[in-house]
Amino acid sequence: MSSTDVAPDAPEAPEQSSLRSGGRRFGDTLFSTLSVGSGILIFVTLALVAIFLTAESMPAFRESKELAGIFGTADPAFSLIGGVAPYIFGTVLAALIALVIAIPVSIGIALFISHYAPRRMAAGLGYMIDLLAAVPSVVYGLWGGVWLVPRLEPLYVFLNQTLVWPSWVPLVPSGEAIIPLFAGDPTAPMRNLASAAVVLAVMILPIITAMAREVFLQVPRLQEEAALALGATRFEVVKTVVLPFGRSGVVAASMLGLGRALGETMAVLMILAPGATFSWHILEVGMHNTIAANIASKQAESSGADMSYLIYTGLVLFVLTFIINAIARWIVSRTTVKG
Amino acid sequence: MSTATTTASTLSGARAAERRLPLWHLLLTGAASLVLAALVLATFGNLSIVGVILLGYVLHLVVTYVYSRVREGRRWAADRVVMLLVIGAFAIALFPLLSLLWKVIVEGGSRVVKAAPHPFAFWTSDMSGVIGGADAGGVLHAAIGTLLITFWASVISIPIGLFTAIFLVEYSSTGWKRTLAKGVTFLVDIMTGIPSIVAGLFGLALFLAFMPDQSVRMGIMGSVALSLLMIPTVVRSSEEMLRLVPLDLREAAYALGVPKWLTVVRVVLRTAIAGLTTGITLAIARVIGETAPLLLTVGMVTGVNWSMFDGRMATLPTFINQQYRAGKANCMSDTVTNVVNGDVYSCSITTNIDRAWAAALTLIVIVMVLNIIARLISHYFSPKLSR
């Protein structure tokens, strides 16, 4: 993916302005117009996305507490910040947990494929990880909801009830979970934020892995061999050469994974029992929801101003992922120029 | 304990011969750890294969570190442990993939094969008149909807995506077009990251702005929403393929006096055709499983709808979601009658979930077939470039 970003528009075909004989050919005009037009269409499309989402969420703006003064609304029904804030919290929390699970595993897989597995097997193993990306998200939701959720229950019970402060330790609330995130009162079925985050982690694994693998493969061979020649073990080569070289690539890959996790709908919709609180207890059921899953679950029975409020939350999500992805791309471009 | 005995027995021989331990030592400690894990779990009374493997893996990390530290030294011990961790990470990733595929094939496969009234009726019947826990119905309507909507999404996306790629590679060398190309590249990257639900909202908002009836849903709305997700994928893959075409070929064509557009069509596209087809097939495979946009834009029906511009449509992803949400069915009596054609079916509590698995199998089969086609095309038809 980086090659397209770096490659300067290499010695391009001549524009033929001086060599051309006679008038401009019809085919040339048509082709150049069509291709430039398509390029402009990309601009137009993204502008349309922003314009239509904003236009369709106008009724919600008009009915909101924050902008009631401007529009002169007597009895505002929505809160632009208060209404969407719990969903933003849930979205970001789920995505971050997924990231915390996925990043170490992805780095491990990328290292395995690029530096540990036998050369001949590497391509095949990479393809197996890519298969994870080919599975539709709705199938992940089905698998997570039916198969995974009951199987995670023992783990959650362990984290919540076994991993607690023993009574002989002073100054701590005995019987409370040692890690505050796992506190609370989870009840089966475990349709909680943690389960949704685990499935999200599986879904972003192939994205992060693919990019990290590519970066790790670009590590200068000479540097690795120099380290080996100095007597470094394979782990020391990885620690001193591969990881420093690939650090920013891994950061960028994680940001892309974050963008994907923020916008994922189906896995969350099909696994999470929704709620709208700011609870940090990720094992408790019915406490969180994400923006995307909230839109998907409420769209069927919404119309008019309610619908435009949903579209407004979609706009918030769009802006959120736009910023995350822009940062990721910026990191990528900065890295590739340096490398 | 097993490690201690092994160490004692082979100490004198191995140290003299070679500093590094051969691989079978690692396998031996692995086996020992598994046995140890099984013993520990058996003592606590909950012996299971998964438990043994998990605990055994963790124990193996410790055992290997200690064993290797004693035999090889601190640095090599760290190396061994990291190698185990890396292999473990790969195994963790394979676990969901294998369990998901296994589950889909077993659950979905049995429903597809056993479906009433005859095997594979699941793929030749729709859901009209199928109510309650009737052990009947199928995905014909949803499969047709998915194929139609994806086809029209491709019709919209492929020309736009291909021409954008041609613009980026062939027509953006100088002046303002160069600036435009930079902007397009950036925006395509941004489009790649658009959440699918936002694409769905866009498809909805776009049509609702011009429709008097705010509850209207139709296939073309879904196609437009999907094309928003498909265009960036097509652009990225096509651009990469077009850049692979050697400059010499273009220059040779120009030297012969071939116009630029004809060079693009007859030389550049012709050379890159295999890669382009592969990329486009993968792009189709990517959007064919998208659910959220279709949930918003095409709704759900029980019968076949061939029209893109008239009424709601069923698709495989939304069908899976709908059947999953329906959950367990109620069985008041042993049989259920189809209200449309009067057929009588047996009642099954799990019929909805079974249908969801079978539809998931259908969808995965379609996606995998597309992926395999893409692989085959790129394998057999890719240009033999001397690079």
UniProtKB/TrEMBL annotation, chain A:
SUPFAM superfamilies: MetI-like. The chain crosses the membrane at residues 30-55, 67-89, 95-113, 125-149, 193-212, 265-283, 309-332. Residues 88-328 form the ABC transmembrane type-1 domain. Pfam families: BPD_transp_1. Keywords: Cell membrane, Membrane, Phosphate transport, Transmembrane, Transmembrane helix, Transport. Gene3D superfamilies: MetI-like. CDD domains: TM_PBP2 (cd06261). It is a multi-pass membrane protein. Residues 1-21 are annotated as: Disordered. It comes from the Bacteria. Belongs to the binding-protein-dependent transport system permease family. CysTW subfamily. Part of the binding-protein-dependent transport system for phosphate; probably responsible for the translocation of the substrate across the membrane. This is Phosphate transport system permease protein. It comes from Brachybacterium rhamnosum. The gene is pstC.
